[in-house]
Design goal:
It is built from 2 helices and 8 strands. Helices cover 17% and strands 33% of the residues. By secondary structure, it is α+β, with helices and mostly antiparallel strands. The longest helix is centred in the middle third of the chain and has 15 residues.
């Protein structure tokens, strides 16, 4: 669904089962408006991509597929760069970003509270990917 400042989708395992296995989003504003500062605000043509997958569905390609769909959506809505802050210990998520063409980007590094890891701010490693707007945007279908 589309909301102010971004797009969010719920991921289901298949149409028959309809089990929620995660989510994916494209944030056109801040990652966390409550804690957003002027230093971490994104330019108008930059967006953050995020995803999560339930643990029993890890290593099945869902995060990579979801990230690729967010790249397609970003191109369609005119985004020129995607960023993705990630915890440095989350090697699987880093690998997903690398498979999707992201590279480590020191300009994206930030501090953020990750509720599943505690109340202290964690230093996240930044990844970024520049998008080519000269290519026609692909048709978005989840069956690809």
């Amino acid at each position: 669904w589309e909301k102010k400042g971004g797009y969010n989708f719920i991921l289901c395992s298949n149409a028959d089962e309809g089990r929620v296995i995660g989510g994916v989003g494209l944030s056109l504003e801040g990652l966390d408006d409550e804690h957003e500062s002027e230093e971490t605000k994104l330019p108008a043509d930059v967006a953050r991509v995020s995803y999560y997958i339930v643990k029993d569905q890890w290593r099945k390609g869902y995060a990579t597929e979801a990230c690729k769909k967010m790249i397609e959506l970003a191109i369609e809505v005119g985004i020129t760069k995607l960023v993705a802050p990630v915890h440095p210990d989350n090697l699987a998520s880093i690998r997903v970003l690398e498979k999707c063409g992201f590279q480590e980007d020191a300009m994206v590094c930030e501090m953020l509270v990750l509720p599943n890891l505690g109340k202290e701010k964690a230093t996240l490693v930044g990844f970024g990917r520049t998008l080519s707007l000269s290519d026609p945007p692909p048709t978005l279908t989840w069956e690809d």
